[in-house]
Amino acid sequence: MIDFENFQEAEAHDYYELIRMLYPQFVSEEKLKLINKGSSVVFVGGGRTLSLNLEKGLDKEQRRRRIKTFILKDLNYPGKIPSAFGILTGVRPVKLVLELLETMSLSDLKDYLKKNYSIEDKMIDFLLSIGQKERAYFSTVDPFGYSVYLHIPFCPSRCAYCSYPMIKSSNRESLDSYVETLLLELDTYKDLKVPPTSIYIGGGTPTSIGEKYLRRILSKVQKIFHSQCEFTVEAGRPDTLNDSIFSALKDYGVNRISINPQTMHDKTLKILNRQHSVTDFLQAYNLGKKYDFNINVDLILGLPQENRQDILDSLNQVVALDPDNITIHTLSLKNGSQLFQQGEYFNTSFIVSEVIQEVYTILKSLDYAPYYMYRQKRTLGNGFNAGYSKPKKESIYNMLMMDEGQSILGFGMSSSTKFYDPKTNRIEKILQYKNLKDYLNHWNDKNAKKSQLREDFKW
Ligand SMILES: C[S@@+](CC[C@H](N)C(=O)[O-])C[C@H]1O[C@@H](n2cnc3c(N)ncnc32)[C@H](O)[C@@H]1O
Ligand code: SF4
């Protein structure tokens, strides 16, 4: 438990996030108290009291960084989990890099990130390489344009690590109402004159809803957006894929898919309740290749009972297939997931940071470069998620969405819509309802807000 005395809420939250990253024991079992005394901050916990005397004349931002740097470097409680990101706690570190690149040279930026955030050198280089790549891509797309996201929250079964709001695809009644509502929602945008930069249908597992529903959705998407752009469908679960699904995707212009083993070990897949085997993945992958899709493959580092060699094994088997994109996730212990409820896993001493580095080195040697990345809360070893790509095969959607380079029009339950004004950098977000009942009954409330913002942004 972490207590804050005399801090404003936002400031306390900032320190809380950093302490939780470095010392998860203070969130779950032990007690730590921070007392703000103005010119000093006192830390009471772990059987001792430490005091940080703050230099005079610090502004608000400098003061926060000073306190966070003290937490990072001087608290030193046992069991500290290292952080390559220093005191940076945000989800989108590359966005910060992109903003700073507007005003600083590359070498000044390196110094700045090191001095102000204590980010490790290797991580700085990693972030900068992604930042430069995204910057180059963003300069080729219209910042006043938009991309489209459609959410399909159906899956064949719930995976043990996952907490996304999902509905079983065997629930035909819910599926039917969902598709009808989604089509209505899409119809409210039929007056759009300009086609999008990219389209992404994600989930959940969109391919789990079967060919008939998929065709209805894809045909509506084509009718409204007339797309010849990058068009991705999350085809994640190999157990949902076959010729008729791939033909449907192909008929409506889908050119990029994701097929995800997560691991190349059957024993782990069983623990995860994935309900497919490594052989199923290989068959689906080879079939997808015949249809000439750009293919992304997701892996997760830190899965239960997997060691370093298991992870490198999975990676080697995946790179042997030569996919265009590989996304490396680090297991994040999500509230509400089965793995999170198995408490002992929360205390794992698995140190993912070294394997992440090895994975990066292997991928780099095979001409895969990182092109977007993000962090999540409660991630093993303070790891992160990164998309790697063969040259010129990067997904523009992933970059635009992650680092907010364009407006995103979202449709469906749990979807997020973001309006972005490149002139002022203003961003406004609207989240669609996260449960089925609310979405089916009230989707139009959110849609009305979307329309209002659309006018506001002169869209
Ligand atoms: C939104 S999910 C959809 C993927 C698709 N339904 C599938 O299962 O293959 C996208 C990816 O997020 C990753 N993911 C989901 N939950 C995660 C967790 N708790 N920790 C790390 N990665 C996770 C998985 O790699 C997954 O493929
Ligand atoms: S990982 Fe994919 S298939 Fe599994 S529950 Fe989550 S969204 Fe569904």
Description of the molecule:
This protein has 459 residues and is α/β, with parallel strands linked by helices. It has three domains: 1-80; 82-129, no CATH class; 146-411, pyruvate-formate lyase- activating enzyme, CATH 3.80.30.20. The protein contains 16 helices and 17 strands. It has helices at 9-22, 25-28, 60-73, 93-101, 106-117, 121-138, 172-187, 211-225, 243-251, 266-271, 278-290, 308-319, 338-341, 352-365, 396-402, 436-456; strands at residues 2-5, 32-36, 40-45, 48-53, 146-152, 154-155, 167-168, 198-203, 230-234, 256-258, 294-301, 325-330, 369-374, 385-389, 407-411, 416-421, 426-431. It has a nine-stranded mixed beta sheet, with helices on both faces. A four-stranded mixed beta sheet has the order 1-2-3-4, with no helix packed on it. It has a two-stranded parallel ribbon with strand order 6-7. β9 (230-234), α9 (243-251) and β10 (256-258) form a beta-alpha-beta unit. α7 (172-187) packs parallel to α8, α8 runs parallel beside α9 (243-251) and α12 (308-319) runs parallel beside α14 (352-365). The protein starts with a strand and ends with a helix. The model has no long low-confidence stretch (mean pLDDT 94). S-adenosylmethionine binds next to β11.
Please tag this protein with its features.
459 residues, alpha/beta, pyruvate-formate lyase- activating enzyme, 3 domains, nine-stranded mixed sheet, 17 strands, globular, binds S-adenosylmethionine
